[in-house]
Amino acid sequence: MLTKLKKLVTQPVFLSSAIATALLFGIQRLGIFQPVELKLYDQMTQIRSDSGKDSRILVVTVTEKDLQKLQQWPLSGEVLDRLFTKLEQYQPRAIGLDIFRDLRVEPGHDKLLKHLQQSDQIISVCKHSDAINPATPPPAGTQPDQVGFSDVVVDPDDIVRRSLLLVPPDSTSPCKTPYSLGLQLALKYLGNIQPKFTSQGELQLNKTVLKRLHSNSGGYQGIDAHGYQILLNYRSANNAVQQVSVSDVLSNHIDPNLLKDRVILIGTTAPSIRDNFNTPYSSTQQDNPRMPGVVLQSQMVSQILSTVLNQQPQFWFLPEWGGALWIWFWTLGGGILAWRVQHPLRLGLAGGLTLLALLGINFFLFIHAGWIPVVPPTLGLVLAIVSIVAYNAFNTKQEQQKIAHQVQEQEKTIALLQAMLKEAPSVGLPETALYQENDILNRRYKIVQPLGAGGFGKTYVAEDTQRPGNPPCVVKQLLPARQDSQFLEIARRLFKTEAEILELLGKHEQIPQLLAYFEENHQFYLVQEFIQGHCLTEEIKYGTRLSEAQVIELLQDVLQVLVFVHSHLVIHRDIKPGNLIRRERDQHLVLIDFGAVKQIQSQQQYEENQSIAIGTAGYSPPEQLMGQPKLNSDIYALGMIGIQALTGVSARKFHRDPNTGKLVFQLKPDTDRLLWSQLAETSENLAAILNRMVAYDFAQRYQSAQEVLQSLKHLSQE
Q1: Which single residue of 258, 278, 431, 485 has CA 20 to 30 Å from 578?
Q2: What DSSP assignment string belongs to 611-649?
Q3: CA-derived radius of gyration, the chain
């Protein structure tokens, strides 16, 4: 168990995601991401659906026209007294005066004070002191339960996103009320519902608990969360409440239904008074980007009423440990994505879709009142992808260097074995072991059936009896050409090197994975992944011609594999239709049976198999026949497969014209020689590509599989 846990923790994906999560969580705690989080909060607020007007609230506004008509500001006590008298006759539930009345404004000041002191419906305002301004007292003679403070919490970017409901009483402040104007008006509307506090110190109205905002809630980090704050859930940018002017009320030009049983707020919307604030909507409002203070107060009242009476969802936030897990989830997901999808285009597409999914989930949660940070998981996703891509690139470079060294050792070993075979090709010839069904190799692999046989050895389908479900695998039995100890020691070294190379190459999805390798009774065995499908020989039978599009698709599929193989400086040495399997589950071609280890065979066995210097007649280029294969020797073999597929003629039937060096077909000695392209229905451009792939001189041939792919890509775009 400890071993598995240690292995898991040291995995690159897990390790990089854990480091990235810790790093991003630490940066988040410093508040560095907060400005971006707040902008994203504003964007989501703007694009979510508009809740429309709250029919329970009416705002009576002092407009610029009212100021011009009344020719005064502040409004006199007499005007406000008349306004209250007009409103009260329509039986509203509560009236809030969002205009300071700490100073005398004649005429009618004393009359107004008496009205305010005697009314149990009217809530006046005061203001607590802050770092810049002193406190503003309420109207003289009013009691704390007749007053609500109008303090507004503004974020560092000068935008109001929070609502302050409660402030602990301060004996030195002239503003004695602990309740905000919005909360006082909401309580008046709710009637008998009295505020109380839960055991956790949260404000409860009836059965509804108003969730408190803490210093690290949502996208906030280290904010001043003094008093009792909640995140302000705006109804709308411009359409939150019905508005009428003071002049309309005083002149009786108003529908009585707009007043009865309503919460009425009185305040100014005149731009010249400058009682307005920036909101999350401000960036999209061209004419009036700032919201009047009285409208802002009405939004606060509406939120409380909607939460208590309509069960409107309250904003919720993840705890700190939940936020860390949220970052880690997306960081780990990005790492896994980069680990599993290594093709650049596919990774870019998958990464983009994952990022869109992250943003979509965040917005979905936001419209359901969940504010979860966006920046850290987004950066975690990107950082994980980049780190794993960088790790894979570094790892690939290391593997390439390792394989390059192994290939060098392999070539030296091959040269030594060939020299030994030339000196004494028949010393200690091995006895061929034939395995029957149900025979067990290495006390693990149960033979199911023979799959193939030849001079190089035999191939079996077997069951791995030590894995759950006994999955099928392929066991290749390789027979050394000699059994003397000196030859076996060198052959063993070549076999081990080849197995190590195959293990690294098996990471490609179109190369069988090497599951195991072992030696038993001086014979060598490779155990590889079983590929369910059929050989390409079934598709390019004699007389069967594939279309140009089919051949291009075939070439591109194999070339993708050769790009990977050749990047590790490995030469397959024996590409032919029999070594290409069309995989059943995805129809991709899988490249099997790499050939360097076949050097442990004797030259006599090569000739019996019509194979020379590791390769198959018709597919092997001249330099490979001379025992000096190049990377583009594999390109030659693939080009011959393409020609065979287009013509329906076996690659062995083509020869080089002694005069032109071109690839020709001659049915009988006394018949004319035909260029291979004369037997196929193909374009001149594809024929030119194939002719260059099978050029006699390797220097005139394509030098890389990637170069051939580019030519085929240009061909498909024409």
Answers
A1: 431
A2: --SSS-TTTS-HHHHTT---TTHHHHHHHHHHHHHHH--
A3: 42
Strand ranges in 54-168 using DSSP code E only, listed in sequence order: 57-62, 94-97, 122-126, 147-149, 162-166
195 CB burial (10 A radius; 0-12, 13-18, 19+) = middle
Q: Nearest Cα to 564, choosing from 594, 528, 597, 536?
A: 594
Cβ(620)–Cβ(609) below 8 Å: no
Q: Phi, psi at residue 717, to the nearest 5°?
A: -90, -10
3 state SS of 668: coil
Active-site amino acid positions: 574
pLDDT, tens only, 46-73: 999 999 999 999 999 999 999 999 888 9
Query: Which residue type is seen at 529?
Result: E
Tokens read off for 295: 């409208």
For residues 503 and 555, is the Cβ–Cβ distance under 8 A? no
Distance CA 210, CA 313 (A): 10
CATH number among 3.90.550.10, 1.10.10.10, 1.10.510.10, 3.40.960.10, domain 533-718: 1.10.510.10
CA pair distance 26, 21, nearest whole angstrom: 8
Q: How far apart are CA 640 and CA 643, in angstroms?
A: 5
Which residue in 649, 672, 498 sits closest to 571, CA to CA?
498
Span 218-243, pLDDT tens digits: 999 999 999 999 999 999 998 899 99
Q: Which two tokens stand for residue 306?
A: 């909607």
Taking the C-alpha atoms of residue 561 and residue 576, their distance in angstroms, rounded to an integer, is 14
pLDDT digits (tens, 9 = 90+) for 5-22: 444 444 788 888 999 999
Pairing of β 57-62 and β 263-268: parallel
Q: What is the C-alpha separation between 616 and 609, in angstroms, rounded?
A: 8
- What's the rounded Cα separation, in Å, for the pair 682 and 702? 20
In 42-168, where do the E strands start and end? 57-62, 94-97, 122-126, 147-149, 162-166
* H-assigned helices in 468-587: 485-505, 548-567
CB 632 within 8 A of CB 698: yes
In the beta sheet, which residues pair with residue 263?
Answer: 57, 94
Helices 705-717/548-567 angle, 10° precision: 150
Which structure tokens are listed for 459? 């191939």
Q: Could you tell me the residue ranges of all domains in the chain?
A: 2-30+318-392, 46-309, 424-530, 533-718
Distance in angstroms between the alpha carbons of the first and the last residue of the chain: 59
The CATH number of 424-530, from 1.10.10.10, 3.30.200.20, 3.30.420.10, 3.10.20.310, is 3.30.200.20
Question: What is the three-state SS of 7-42?
Answer: HHHCCHHHHHHHHHHHHHHHHHHCCCCHHHHHHHHH
How many residues in total does the chain contain? 718
User: Which residue blocks in 123-234 are alpha helix, DSSP H?
Assistant: 181-190
Cβ atoms of 693 and 642 within 8 Å: the answer is: yes
What's the CA gap between 556 and 447, in Å, rounded?
35
Residue 17's closest CA among 355, 318, 323, 330? Answer: 330
- Cβ atoms of 493 and 596 within 8 Å: the answer is no
Q: pLDDT tens digits, residue range 393-412? A: 888 788 777 777 777 776 77
* pTM confidence score: 0.70
